[in-house]
Structure formats: C-alpha cells, structure tokens
Amino acid sequence: MRKVKVLVVDDSPTMRGLIATALTKDPDIVVVGEAEDPLQARQAIKTLNPDVVTLDVEMPNMSGLEFLEKIMRLRPMPVIMVSTLTKRGAEETLQALEMGAIDCIEKPRPGNEHSFEELPYKVKIAASARVKPLIRTEDSHRQARGIRSAHESYVSDGRVVAIGASTGGVEALLELLSGFPENCPPTVITQHMPPAFTHSFADRLDRLCAPKVQEATDHAKLLPGNVFLAPGGTRHLEITPDLRCRLKAGERVSGHCPSVDVLFNSVARSCKGNAVGVILTGMGKDGAAGLLAMRQAGAKTFGQNESSCIVYGMPKAAFEVGAVESQLPLDRLAAAIIAETSMKKKN
C-alpha cells in the first residue's frame, strides 16, 4: 500500500515539528516536506506533489484562507486546516471548510494537549476524499437565503427532521439549510466537529440561512423555524417524547460524542413515524443503525448519494443496512425534505 504523502504548512517551526511527529507515528504516512508560509508551500506543492496538505489558518505573507482559495481554484487537493482556539481562528476555519477544505483540527492547548492524536486518521480520510473545487461566497448564500425564505406557502406538518453528518458536513449542511424556508420543520443536527467550533458554526449557519440556527441547549423546545446543532464535547444530543432537546453526558458511541446514532435512536423512540431522517457525507458508520431504527419506526429516510459526497462512508453504511429509503444528490435534498414535510403534501 502506497504511503500518504503530506506537506506541512505552518509559520511556527515548533508546530511543524509537532504535526510531523504526530503524522510519522503512522506507518502509512510520510511527511514529504514542510513550508513556513504559502509562498514556500506553493513551490513545494509543485515539486513534491503531496496527497494532503495541512494548512495553518493564520500565517504571514498570505492568510491560510487566501492560500486555500488559490489551491482550490488552481489545483484542487485535500487540505486539513490546523486552527487555534480563538474566535477568529474558528470563523476562518469554518470558511475554509465551506471553500473545500476536507477537515480541521485544533492546535494543542491546555486541557486538550492530545488534539493531534486524531490527525493521522483525518489525513488518511482526506487522502481518499473527493475534492470539490467549487467555492461558495457569502454573497451567493445571502442570495439563496432571500430566495428560499420566500416559501410563503410552506407550512410544516409537524414532523421533526434529524440530520447526521461528518467529514464534508460543513459545506453540505450550509447548502442543505440554504434550501430551507424561514419556517422550516423543527430540525436537529449532529455534526462531528471539535467542541471549539460548534458554537461558531451554528452562528455562521444562522447568518447565512433563513431559519433560526443555534447550538442546542438542554430542554430547548423543537418548533418550526428552528434548527438545533449538537454541541461538540462530552454530551450527546437526544430528543425527548415532548419534543425537547436533551444533552446527556456519555461515552463515545460508534466512535463519536456527540453521536449521530444516539440522536437518531432517540428520534425513533420519541417521534416514531413523525420524523424524517437524513444522513450526509462522512467517514465511518455512525448513524447507520440509528437511521435504520428510524425507518423501522415509520420515519421517512434520505441519504446523500455517492457522487455528491466528500466521503461516501456514513451514507453508504446506512444504505447497505437498508436504512435509506431514498438516495439523492445534495442539491436535491432540501427540496425533497420540504416537500415531504409540507402540510400541503399530496397523498
């Protein structure tokens, strides 16, 4: 098996050393080069032809975002963003994921000294991911928001929409929710993401999409026009029979906390057939068993199709166990969900 070639781009020699050390612990990865700024990195990419680039968000001469845009426009390739735990760092990382970066990881900090332990895993996922060169702008999202919020005839039939996503989910969720009207069905989401980024991600979705999007809080009521994102960290998001969010501490399930399986299973128990399940791009099989439980309970279930996924892992696993009733490309999912949950749906 050919080793994954990685180029490490960071202005700090110490950080480059930490990243290289973390990566070379995996025998399937080789660090073929390092660069301290985008100017060096540009030449290194041409010379070394890496499979994956790790890219610092904040650098001299050219920001990580500016350099990522050039990469995705001129030579699309898998990129993992390495970010500090700052508001600016989180915002720029989320923008990078929207622009086509495959994933992100936090720099080590007090309380999270082992953050780079997941880096080899993320790099190997990135190496096999479908890189999409399309770059979305905030202007296009504002325009989409204006168009989608014009669904004046839409009235939710009361069903809860539960969505699960992982690698590639930032871009996918933004596109999906941009197709939701302001009075969308009550929606809950579990997206695999470091704890530092979920609050900023919810805020960003709220700015760019028509519905009210917020990080889920304990006992929050599920109502039309509201979208709740599971906080990253040590608690799972569940839905109670009286249609409220419950944040419950627990160990990882299907390798994750929060877990898509935990969310979907709670929706199957609490909502029975009064729900719609959606599984989006991501690595692994988290959500497959839970989505199957939803379908068996009578819920309508959708899966993102292979050609539109960054990583066709989670949707594939769900499809293979019979959990997915309909597979659709990402650009058709929002319309399908809205049509399915409309009070005016034709029987």
TrEMBL record:
PTM comment: Phosphorylated by CheA. Phosphorylation of the N-terminal regulatory domain activates the methylesterase activity.
UniProt-listed SUPFAM superfamilies: CheY-like (SSF52172), Methylesterase CheB, C-terminal domain (SSF52738)
Highest taxon in the source lineage: Bacteria
This enzyme's EC code(s): 3.1.1.61, 3.5.1.44
Ranges where the CheB-type methylesterase domain occurs: 154-344
Gene Ontology CC entries for this record: cytoplasm
Any GO BP annotation: chemotaxis
Domain Response regulatory stretches: 5-122
Domain notes: Contains a C-terminal catalytic domain, and an N-terminal region which modulates catalytic activity.
Protein family: Belongs to the CheB family.
Name of this chain's protein: Protein-glutamate methylesterase/protein-glutamine glutaminase
Gene: cheB
